[in-house]
Amino acid sequence: MIRSLPPLSLAALAFLTTPAMAQQPDDADVETIVVTGAGLPLPPGTPAYGSVIIRDDRLDSSASGRLENVLQDVAGFQQFRRSDSRSANPSAQGVTLRALGGNASSRTLMLLDGVPLADPFFGYIPFSALSPDRLSVVRVTRGGGSGAFGAGAVAGTIELASATRDRLPLASASAFYGSRDATELEASLSPDLGGGYVTVSGRWDRGDGFNTTPASQRTSATVPARYDGWSTNLRAVIPVQPDVELQFRALLFEDNRTLRFAGADSMSSGQDLSLRLVSRGPWKIDALVYGQARDFSNIVISSSTFRKTLDQRATPSTGIGGKIEIRPPVGSSNVLRIGTDFRLMSGDMFEDAYNANLATNPLTASRHAYGEQSTVGFFAENDWTLGPLILTGGIRADRWTIRQGITESRNPAGVLTQQTRQPDRDDWQVTGRAGAILTLSDVFALRGAGYTGFRLPTLNELYRGFSVFPVTTQANANLAPEKLRGVEAGFDVTPAPGITLSATAFYNRLEDAIANVTIGTNLRQRRNVDAVVAKGIELAGSADVGPFSLSASYAYNRSKVDAPGLAFDGLVPAQVPRHAASGTLSFVPAEGALISTTLRYVSRQYEDDLQTDALPGAVTLDGYARMPIGRGVSIVGRAENIFDKAVVTRNQGGSIDLGTPRTLWIGVSFRR
User: Residue ranges of the domains in the chain?
Assistant: First the structure.
């Protein structure tokens, strides 16, 4: 279920995300350590920024079983395209909020247990490696300003929290069989270990896929969007002292997909490690370090000759980083957070170009690009509770660098024919945010916030071009960072127990916005435009009445590009719908049983900056049903896009891709 996060319900979210403290039994000489593996409790000013949460019961009952589709419960969430991780190119799976424009890189900072998830080179999110069953809660903040989270949150922050001790069964497993010979297997084991616990989980899913190409555009080389991926996760929580614990996490994954044409194969893989120390004593501390190793490859097939035209054979990248946040004891009415964080990223791109017009398909050039970038930030944020009024404010100073940029090309004989070294760049960026919550009664509360933020261009945007028939998009090594200024105001209402309503009006201005700008026939380049101005209204509501529950979310967006003198000045940014809505109705007929249905709507949006290629609006309906049969075993049925609505996910010059058609699943799950 999706929930607005008003101050009136903050205590409920704190219960979901705050670990149990060390408890003293009757014998004062013996301390009982209770760990759950969560982070520090939420500061009281968190709701000022209009957060919403997705509870674990909703995470467990998605028709697709995929996190990116669950996140669509939050109206305004979008990826670069409407496809999910079964039929999208992985490099296009950047996420954004607040109608700031489609971009394959993420304008939203997405964290798992405090660690950024974005690929160090591309900035996309590896959704296929993120199982909703491994999470306890998701919090989505649809406003910029990164506060204590790190740089990059120009469109908001999505925080994922791993399942905690009280929400983990000793053992769980599920097996599903779906349309088009699809299978999905998942299992986990979570035994106690000393005073802590360890969780080992794995997931494997594959499918023959569906034809993303409309029947009228299929050729002899057209194939369904096949997919085959796996991931495994190890997480250990180890008590050090009664109020101190270590949290270790390792994630390994690989994802293989075929898109549109035979031979158009892509592969993404990763190995992520993190170590986190959480201290809940008088001086509260949250410290972590992490490392990421990722890779990506992709083969582009000519749409006319169906031969290989480009082999992006390897894109290895690494990211290392860390954070330390300290909350000193400054009194019961204040929560002060001070600290520092850093992230260092580097990546290579190796690709070979081929002449697809010749039957021999000869190699024509080999290209290589490399770059590094980093951010080192210092932050301070404080929340003041003054009776019914909560004030929150913070400031960040980030030192960023872009360095060692190089692009080069060699002929088939290996002779260097072109080499360009980019000058190193660095600067300081100061950002801040502030907000307030005023609780007027047990029923009604007002809130407001203002913020600034920034995002560096990714190594992908700087150094790697790409082609999606019939359009080629060039990289641009001179891109400047994006900078955001925004304000919002809203209210939260709890008219009766179990019923919440919220509304937020916002205005955001993203200056130097990075966009794919048309510069010729079937030719675009990544460029900074003056600004994208996004304003709108977001509504959310939920109700629990007996065995029934209803949650809904709606976003109205009025966005435009501010680019005086250019052809797209005043037009809607690419990939931004005017309206987006989602609603889920659930019924619990018996303990452990669940029947739910989700209705979603997204209005027309445009593929390109000049509004020549439209993506029609779409309405889809999903369903989910679970019935326990005893001993922890349940029969589960899932249905995606029940009415088989044709959802256009790409339209470039009339070349169209479609989203997931009707897909039915039957399976069994076990939790004990």
Answer: 2-212+223-671
